[in-house]
Amino acid sequence: MRARLGRQCLYVPSCRLGLYVALRHWCPPGGRVLMSPVNGDVILFVVLAAGLRPVQAPLNPRDGSLDPAAVPEAVWRGLSAVLTTHLYGNPDPAPELAERCRALGIPLLEDAAHAIGGEVGGRPVGTHGEASVFSLSKHTGAKTGGFLAVRDPALYGELARARDALLLPSRPVAELAYAVRPYAEAAVRGLRLVKAARAALRALGREERAGIRMPLRPAELKDALSAAPGLVPFDAWVRVDLHDYRLAPGRVRLRRTERLLGRLDATLAAHRAGTEKLLASPWGDPRAPVRPLFRVPLLVEDRDAAVAALARARVPTGYLYDPPLDDYAGPLFTDPSPRPEGARWFARHALPADPLRADQVLEVLRASGARPAGPHGG
Predict the structure, then answer these.
(1) Domain final residue pick, 166, 192, 212
(2) Which residues contact 316 (CB under 8 A, 6 or more apart)?
(3) 73 — pLDDT class (breaks 50, 70, 90)
(4) pLDDT at 371 over 90
């Protein structure tokens, strides 16, 4: 990763932990952070855990990227940092954001979890701000690990100590569970037991998401805010979907991650090829640059019907972010976007399609009669 980015990189057990370390280092408690409202809810809770106030930004409705021109001047002047999203691998306008942040004397932090291998402004995604976080759970499929990349290599030791202070010791049972997980998941899919497995989790009270967003639990969240900054009070929210997010990696995790990362160039080429097919479809944007997207946000009139059609064909749809975070969390926990319509439209119509299954996705959408979304506001 140092060779790819030209930056010092610190390994972290999860992107969310790397982001927390970055926010705590660069942002004073009580600061305000501009971020995308179309993002994972976990990221909102990481920002809150760092003792910061999330400020939701206006978005370009066609690709979900942050729209700097639509951010009011009064909002810019009150910020402590800007956090990009690079949603699904489509980059935010990082060069423009970096220039604005330099003028304001605040850091630009890049969440590049979906964007490994991407470029913007002639440079790799993740090299425009003071720091960036990458996930190895996405393109590589390692389902663990990530990197915190920093502009100033002199900060490596300080950030490594901050990371180490948050780590939990590696556990043999957790390493064994990680080792057998791919085989268990393959068996569940092969035996068509996915619905049964989910029903069992619901019956045991272990299902953390009944819908797209996890339950907010506002009364508990308000209590946690009184103890911020700190991860422990927010652990019930930050760990969702990844309970080992603070776990020090064992040899099994590191070996598998290294092996999968070694295949990254071939993986990125496959993502690029699938992205090109999906963008050329009636639901894509043929004018968009072809990048190795993690997911391609096809714009579908009835997104939920399309998701159901794909599910019947055993094509799961993940990484849905609907409703936007300001509608989900409300003004008690975040500053709402001054122009929320673009984010709402995108969240309602975006269908994140896996480019590695592009042919199957397109076949299902054509057979189901899915219609492309009409113009924004139409």
Answers:
(1) 166
(2) 194, 310
(3) very high
(4) yes
- CA distances 106 to 18, 80, 82, 299, Å, are 19, 6, 8, 34
The range of the structural domain enclosing residue 294 comes to 261-368
Query: Is 207 inside any structural domain?
Result: no
Residue the block writes with tokens 């967003």: 213
pLDDT at 178: 72
Phi/psi of residue 123, nearest 5 degrees: -135, 155
b/e 215-228 (16+ beta carbons within 10 angstroms → b): ebeeeebeebbeeb
CB-CB neighbours of 346 under 10 Å: 26
Out of 139, 166, 193, a domain closes at 166
Residue 206 in any domain: the answer is: no
d(CA 253, CA 17): 16
pLDDT digits (tens, 9 = 90+) for 132-153: 999 999 999 888 999 999 999 9
Q: Please tell me the pTM assigned to this model.
A: 0.92
* Encoded tokens for 158: 């300080």
- Work out the average pLDDT over 268-272: 97
Beta strands 32-35 and 108-111 are unpaired
What's the CATH number where 305 sits?
A: 3.90.1150
